[in-house]
Amino acid sequence: MTEIIMEARDVVHQYPDGTRALNNITLSLEKGKKIAFLGPNGAGKSTLFLHFNGILKPARGKIIFRGREIRYDHSSLTELRKNVGIVFQDPEIQLFSASVYQEISFGPLNMGLSREEVRRRVDRAMEITGVTGLKNKATHYLSYGQKKRVSIADILAMNPQVIIFDEPTSGLDPKLTGQIMELFDGFSREGKTVILSTHDVNAAYSWADHVIVIKDGSVAGEGEPEDIFQDDGLLAAADLDKPWLVDVYRQLRSRGLVAEGCGVPRTREKLFGLIRNI
Questions:
Q1: Whole domain around residue 223: which residue ranges?
Q2: 160, 176: one domain
Q3: What protein family does this chain belong to (predicted)?
Protein backbone atom coordinates (compact mmCIF):
# COMPACT_ATOMS: atom_id res chain seq x y z
CA MET A 1 0.00 0.00 0.00
CA THR A 2 1.36 3.40 -0.98
CA GLU A 3 2.26 5.67 1.93
CA ILE A 4 2.99 9.35 1.35
CA ILE A 5 5.69 10.65 3.67
CA MET A 6 6.00 14.25 2.47
CA GLU A 7 3.92 16.68 0.46
CA ALA A 8 4.05 20.22 -0.84
CA ARG A 9 0.63 21.79 -1.39
CA ASP A 10 0.44 24.97 -3.47
CA VAL A 11 3.72 26.22 -1.99
CA VAL A 12 4.90 29.69 -2.93
CA HIS A 13 8.26 31.13 -1.92
CA GLN A 14 9.59 34.54 -2.86
CA TYR A 15 13.03 35.81 -1.89
CA PRO A 16 13.52 39.36 -0.56
CA ASP A 17 14.83 40.55 -3.94
CA GLY A 18 11.50 39.62 -5.49
CA THR A 19 12.61 36.34 -7.10
CA ARG A 20 9.76 33.84 -7.00
CA ALA A 21 11.53 30.54 -6.49
CA LEU A 22 8.48 28.31 -5.94
CA ASN A 23 5.30 28.92 -7.86
CA ASN A 24 2.30 27.07 -6.36
CA ILE A 25 4.24 23.82 -6.40
CA THR A 26 2.32 20.68 -5.46
CA LEU A 27 3.77 17.17 -5.18
CA SER A 28 3.72 14.04 -3.05
CA LEU A 29 6.67 11.81 -2.13
CA GLU A 30 6.18 8.13 -1.42
CA LYS A 31 7.79 6.57 1.63
CA GLY A 32 10.81 4.35 1.00
CA LYS A 33 11.33 5.46 -2.60
CA LYS A 34 14.48 6.70 -4.33
CA ILE A 35 13.43 10.04 -5.80
CA ALA A 36 15.49 12.20 -8.16
CA PHE A 37 14.73 15.86 -8.79
CA LEU A 38 15.95 17.26 -12.10
CA GLY A 39 15.80 20.68 -13.68
CA PRO A 40 17.90 23.63 -14.76
CA ASN A 41 19.80 25.85 -12.33
CA GLY A 42 17.42 28.23 -10.61
CA ALA A 43 14.42 25.94 -11.12
CA GLY A 44 13.67 25.87 -7.36
CA LYS A 45 14.97 22.45 -6.34
CA SER A 46 17.24 23.63 -3.53
CA THR A 47 14.63 26.08 -2.27
CA LEU A 48 12.07 23.27 -2.10
CA PHE A 49 14.48 21.08 -0.15
CA LEU A 50 14.97 23.85 2.41
CA HIS A 51 11.20 23.87 2.88
CA PHE A 52 11.13 20.11 3.44
CA ASN A 53 13.58 20.57 6.31
CA GLY A 54 11.82 23.62 7.75
CA ILE A 55 14.75 25.97 7.10
CA LEU A 56 12.47 28.06 4.89
CA LYS A 57 8.77 28.75 5.46
CA PRO A 58 6.31 29.10 2.58
CA ALA A 59 4.84 32.50 1.84
CA ARG A 60 1.71 30.55 0.93
CA GLY A 61 0.82 26.87 0.94
CA LYS A 62 1.79 23.97 3.17
CA ILE A 63 4.50 21.38 3.68
CA ILE A 64 3.11 18.13 5.07
CA PHE A 65 5.23 15.49 6.82
CA ARG A 66 3.64 12.12 7.70
CA GLY A 67 0.16 13.58 7.24
CA ARG A 68 0.66 16.66 9.42
CA GLU A 69 1.36 20.22 8.39
CA ILE A 70 4.80 21.41 9.47
CA ARG A 71 4.78 23.87 12.37
CA TYR A 72 7.58 26.39 12.79
CA ASP A 73 8.04 26.65 16.55
CA HIS A 74 11.37 25.52 17.97
CA SER A 75 10.26 22.14 19.37
CA SER A 76 8.35 21.20 16.19
CA LEU A 77 11.31 22.05 13.95
CA THR A 78 13.71 20.14 16.22
CA GLU A 79 11.50 17.05 15.90
CA LEU A 80 11.18 17.51 12.13
CA ARG A 81 14.95 17.71 11.67
CA LYS A 82 15.43 14.46 13.56
CA ASN A 83 13.39 12.82 10.83
CA VAL A 84 14.27 14.85 7.74
CA GLY A 85 18.00 15.37 7.19
CA ILE A 86 19.55 17.44 4.42
CA VAL A 87 23.09 17.16 3.05
CA PHE A 88 24.09 20.36 1.30
CA GLN A 89 25.87 20.54 -2.04
CA ASP A 90 28.92 22.24 -0.53
CA PRO A 91 30.19 20.27 2.48
CA GLU A 92 32.05 23.36 3.72
CA ILE A 93 28.64 24.81 4.69
CA GLN A 94 27.88 21.81 6.89
CA LEU A 95 31.18 21.00 8.59
CA PHE A 96 32.24 23.14 11.53
CA SER A 97 33.67 20.90 14.30
CA ALA A 98 37.38 20.39 14.91
CA SER A 99 37.56 16.65 14.23
CA VAL A 100 35.58 14.14 12.20
CA TYR A 101 34.29 12.35 15.32
CA GLN A 102 33.18 15.60 16.94
CA GLU A 103 31.48 16.63 13.73
CA ILE A 104 29.44 13.45 13.34
CA SER A 105 28.56 13.22 17.05
CA PHE A 106 27.26 16.80 17.27
CA GLY A 107 23.73 16.04 16.03
CA PRO A 108 23.11 12.89 18.11
CA LEU A 109 24.46 14.62 21.24
CA ASN A 110 21.98 17.44 20.74
CA MET A 111 19.15 14.90 20.49
CA GLY A 112 19.73 14.08 24.15
CA LEU A 113 20.89 10.53 23.50
CA SER A 114 23.12 8.64 25.91
CA ARG A 115 26.87 8.65 25.32
CA GLU A 116 26.71 4.94 24.51
CA GLU A 117 23.99 5.45 21.89
CA VAL A 118 25.84 8.43 20.38
CA ARG A 119 29.02 6.37 20.10
CA ARG A 120 27.12 3.48 18.50
CA ARG A 121 25.47 5.77 15.94
CA VAL A 122 28.67 7.62 15.10
CA ASP A 123 30.68 4.40 14.70
CA ARG A 124 28.00 2.97 12.41
CA ALA A 125 27.75 6.15 10.33
CA MET A 126 31.53 6.25 9.92
CA GLU A 127 31.66 2.59 8.93
CA ILE A 128 28.88 2.93 6.35
CA THR A 129 30.43 6.02 4.75
CA GLY A 130 33.98 4.67 4.90
CA VAL A 131 35.49 7.39 7.10
CA THR A 132 36.35 5.36 10.23
CA GLY A 133 40.06 5.85 9.54
CA LEU A 134 39.53 9.62 9.59
CA LYS A 135 37.96 9.60 13.05
CA ASN A 136 40.52 11.88 14.71
CA LYS A 137 41.47 13.93 11.66
CA ALA A 138 40.79 17.67 11.55
CA THR A 139 37.89 18.39 9.20
CA HIS A 140 39.74 21.24 7.46
CA TYR A 141 42.48 18.82 6.35
CA LEU A 142 40.05 16.51 4.54
CA SER A 143 39.88 16.22 0.77
CA TYR A 144 36.71 17.35 -0.98
CA GLY A 145 35.51 13.76 -1.40
CA GLN A 146 36.22 12.98 2.26
CA LYS A 147 34.27 16.06 3.32
CA LYS A 148 31.35 14.84 1.22
CA ARG A 149 31.40 11.49 3.02
CA VAL A 150 31.64 13.11 6.47
CA SER A 151 28.73 15.43 5.67
CA ILE A 152 26.66 12.36 4.76
CA ALA A 153 27.74 10.60 7.97
CA ASP A 154 26.65 13.74 9.86
CA ILE A 155 23.06 13.23 8.79
CA LEU A 156 23.13 9.43 8.86
CA ALA A 157 24.06 9.47 12.57
CA MET A 158 20.76 11.27 13.25
CA ASN A 159 18.95 8.23 11.78
CA PRO A 160 16.32 10.26 9.87
CA GLN A 161 13.43 8.72 7.94
CA VAL A 162 14.08 11.01 4.98
CA ILE A 163 17.54 11.97 3.70
CA ILE A 164 17.81 14.80 1.17
CA PHE A 165 20.94 15.27 -0.94
CA ASP A 166 21.45 18.49 -2.90
CA GLU A 167 23.77 17.74 -5.85
CA PRO A 168 25.62 15.02 -3.90
CA THR A 169 27.94 13.98 -6.74
CA SER A 170 28.91 17.48 -7.88
CA GLY A 171 32.69 17.74 -8.12
CA LEU A 172 33.28 14.00 -7.64
CA ASP A 173 35.08 11.68 -10.04
CA PRO A 174 33.14 8.77 -11.60
CA LYS A 175 34.51 6.19 -9.16
CA LEU A 176 33.51 8.17 -6.07
CA THR A 177 30.17 9.04 -7.68
CA GLY A 178 29.46 5.33 -8.05
CA GLN A 179 30.40 4.70 -4.42
CA ILE A 180 28.13 7.49 -3.21
CA MET A 181 25.20 6.17 -5.26
CA GLU A 182 25.77 2.71 -3.77
CA LEU A 183 25.55 4.30 -0.32
CA PHE A 184 22.17 5.72 -1.26
CA ASP A 185 21.00 2.27 -2.37
CA GLY A 186 21.93 0.98 1.07
CA PHE A 187 19.90 3.71 2.78
CA SER A 188 16.93 2.79 0.61
CA ARG A 189 17.21 -0.89 1.50
CA GLU A 190 16.92 0.15 5.16
CA GLY A 191 13.53 1.69 4.35
CA LYS A 192 14.62 5.31 4.26
CA THR A 193 13.23 7.72 1.71
CA VAL A 194 16.18 9.06 -0.31
CA ILE A 195 15.74 12.30 -2.24
CA LEU A 196 18.37 13.94 -4.39
CA SER A 197 18.73 16.70 -6.91
CA THR A 198 21.19 16.15 -9.69
CA HIS A 199 22.22 17.30 -13.15
CA ASP A 200 23.55 13.80 -13.87
CA VAL A 201 20.75 12.32 -16.00
CA ASN A 202 22.62 9.02 -16.36
CA ALA A 203 22.81 8.51 -12.59
CA ALA A 204 19.18 9.56 -12.12
CA TYR A 205 17.96 7.22 -14.86
CA SER A 206 19.74 4.14 -13.53
CA TRP A 207 19.15 4.85 -9.83
CA ALA A 208 15.77 6.45 -9.19
CA ASP A 209 12.37 4.84 -8.65
CA HIS A 210 10.65 8.13 -9.40
CA VAL A 211 11.78 11.27 -11.21
CA ILE A 212 10.39 14.77 -10.73
CA VAL A 213 11.31 17.53 -13.19
CA ILE A 214 11.16 21.07 -11.82
CA LYS A 215 11.04 24.17 -14.02
CA ASP A 216 10.31 27.76 -13.01
CA GLY A 217 9.34 26.71 -9.50
CA SER A 218 6.69 24.21 -10.61
CA VAL A 219 6.48 20.51 -11.48
CA ALA A 220 7.00 20.20 -15.23
CA GLY A 221 6.63 16.42 -15.18
CA GLU A 222 7.03 13.35 -13.01
CA GLY A 223 6.93 9.59 -13.34
CA GLU A 224 9.06 6.50 -13.71
CA PRO A 225 12.51 7.07 -15.27
CA GLU A 226 11.67 5.06 -18.41
CA ASP A 227 8.73 7.38 -19.13
CA ILE A 228 10.35 10.69 -18.18
CA PHE A 229 13.49 10.12 -20.23
CA GLN A 230 11.59 9.18 -23.37
CA ASP A 231 9.47 12.36 -23.24
CA ASP A 232 11.41 14.46 -25.75
CA GLY A 233 9.21 17.53 -25.26
CA LEU A 234 9.65 17.53 -21.49
CA LEU A 235 13.42 17.04 -21.74
CA ALA A 236 13.74 19.90 -24.22
CA ALA A 237 11.59 22.23 -22.11
CA ALA A 238 13.68 21.49 -19.00
CA ASP A 239 16.99 21.64 -20.92
CA LEU A 240 17.84 18.04 -20.02
CA ASP A 241 19.84 15.55 -22.08
CA LYS A 242 18.79 11.97 -22.63
CA PRO A 243 20.69 9.32 -20.67
CA TRP A 244 23.17 7.54 -22.91
CA LEU A 245 21.39 4.22 -22.30
CA VAL A 246 18.16 5.58 -23.76
CA ASP A 247 19.97 7.10 -26.75
CA VAL A 248 21.91 3.92 -27.54
CA TYR A 249 18.84 1.74 -27.08
CA ARG A 250 16.84 3.89 -29.50
CA GLN A 251 19.59 3.69 -32.10
CA LEU A 252 19.88 -0.08 -31.76
CA ARG A 253 16.12 -0.52 -31.98
CA SER A 254 15.84 1.73 -35.06
CA ARG A 255 18.39 -0.51 -36.79
CA GLY A 256 16.65 -3.71 -35.78
CA LEU A 257 19.43 -4.76 -33.45
CA VAL A 258 17.12 -5.00 -30.42
CA ALA A 259 13.77 -6.73 -30.44
CA GLU A 260 10.61 -4.61 -30.15
CA GLY A 261 8.75 -4.74 -26.86
CA CYS A 262 11.69 -5.64 -24.66
CA GLY A 263 11.59 -2.31 -22.82
CA VAL A 264 14.27 0.31 -22.28
CA PRO A 265 17.10 -1.11 -20.12
CA ARG A 266 18.10 0.70 -16.94
CA THR A 267 21.68 -0.62 -16.75
CA ARG A 268 24.47 -1.24 -19.25
CA GLU A 269 24.47 -4.93 -18.29
CA LYS A 270 20.81 -5.27 -19.34
CA LEU A 271 21.51 -3.41 -22.58
CA PHE A 272 24.42 -5.71 -23.39
CA GLY A 273 22.22 -8.70 -22.57
CA LEU A 274 19.63 -7.55 -25.10
CA ILE A 275 22.31 -7.24 -27.78
CA ARG A 276 23.76 -10.68 -27.05
CA ASN A 277 20.31 -12.29 -27.21
CA ILE A 278 19.55 -11.12 -30.75
A1: 4-241
A2: yes
A3: Belongs to the ABC transporter superfamily.
177 with 226, same domain: the answer is: yes
User: Is residue 171 predicted with pLDDT exceeding 60?
Assistant: yes
Residues 161 and 269 in one domain: no
User: For residue range 126-135, what is the model confidence (pLDDT) as tens digits?
Assistant: 998 889 999 9
Check whether residue 122 and residue 256 sit in a common domain: no
Q: What is the mean pLDDT of residues 136-140?
A: 91
CA distance readout (Å), 115 to 96, 106, 118, 195: 21, 11, 5, 30
Structural domains counted in the chain: 2
CA atoms of 39 and 66, how far apart (whole Å)? 26
Shortest CA distance to 209 belongs to which of 221, 197, 226? Answer: 226
Mean of pLDDT over the chain = 91
Report the CATH number at residue 86: 3.40.50.300
Mark whether 229 and 94 lie in a shared domain.
yes
139 and 276 both lie in a single domain? no
Q: What's the CA gap between 121 and 127, in Å, rounded?
A: 10
pTM of the model: 0.91
CB 235 within 8 A of CB 229: yes
Q: Are residues 277 and 157 in the same domain?
A: no
